Amino acid sequence: MRLTMTVNGTERVVDDVWAGESLLYVLRERAGLPGSKNACEQGECGSCTVYLDGAPVCACLVAAGQAAGRQVRTVEGLCDGDALDVVQQAFLAAGAVQCGFCTPGLIVAAHDLLARNPAPDDATIREALSGNLCRCTGYEKILDAVRLAAARRAGREVAR
């Protein structure tokens, strides 16, 4: 089938999509957007989190055909040209990136949280990121990154 969707603000047409392909597969292998990671293929780890019509979803659980005519925003689409989003910058500054496998999904989840709640407390951050698993960091650096992004968004620069 032919799949037409808007990805990161640009209409994309992908041909010969098999009905059983996941949105994640189409994004990574057919659209050349490898940011979202393929880890569990069961929606348990959050590594493949993307926005679908403004809501975060696990792209591995979305059949590609379900994205037809819809808006998809990946971790690559959070950037403004070459400038990283404040959440992406905060993950780098806080050292929240280890192996990098969980990072794209965590960044999208944190981005969504801060769009809904610009000043979350630690319990709210933990709840918002609970669908994202990390095997390297122990989560403290990730929490630091979200706190830093929130502070920077609010105009409160935090020394790093």
From TrEMBL:
<keyword id="KW-0001">2Fe-2S</keyword>
<dbReference type="InterPro" id="IPR036010">
    <property type="entry name" value="2Fe-2S_ferredoxin-like_sf"/>
</dbReference>
<dbReference type="InterPro" id="IPR036884">
    <property type="entry name" value="2Fe-2S-bd_dom_sf"/>
</dbReference>
<feature type="domain" description="2Fe-2S ferredoxin-type">
    <location>
        <begin position="1"/>
        <end position="78"/>
    </location>
</feature>
<dbReference type="InterPro" id="IPR002888">
    <property type="entry name" value="2Fe-2S-bd"/>
</dbReference>
<keyword id="KW-0560">Oxidoreductase</keyword>
<dbReference type="GO" id="GO:0046872">
    <property type="term" value="F:metal ion binding"/>
</dbReference>
<dbReference type="InterPro" id="IPR051452">
    <property type="entry name" value="Diverse_Oxidoreductases"/>
</dbReference>
<keyword id="KW-0408">Iron</keyword>
<dbReference type="Pfam" id="PF01799">
    <property type="entry name" value="Fer2_2"/>
</dbReference>
<dbReference type="GO" id="GO:0051537">
    <property type="term" value="F:2 iron, 2 sulfur cluster binding"/>
</dbReference>
<dbReference type="InterPro" id="IPR006058">
    <property type="entry name" value="2Fe2S_fd_BS"/>
</dbReference>
<protein>
    <submittedName>
        <fullName>Carbon-monoxide dehydrogenase small subunit</fullName>
    </submittedName>
</protein>
<keyword id="KW-0479">Metal-binding</keyword>
<dbReference type="GO" id="GO:0016491">
    <property type="term" value="F:oxidoreductase activity"/>
</dbReference>
<dbReference type="InterPro" id="IPR001041">
    <property type="entry name" value="2Fe-2S_ferredoxin-type"/>
</dbReference>
<keyword id="KW-0411">Iron-sulfur</keyword>
<dbReference type="Pfam" id="PF00111">
    <property type="entry name" value="Fer2"/>
</dbReference>
<dbReference type="InterPro" id="IPR012675">
    <property type="entry name" value="Beta-grasp_dom_sf"/>
</dbReference>
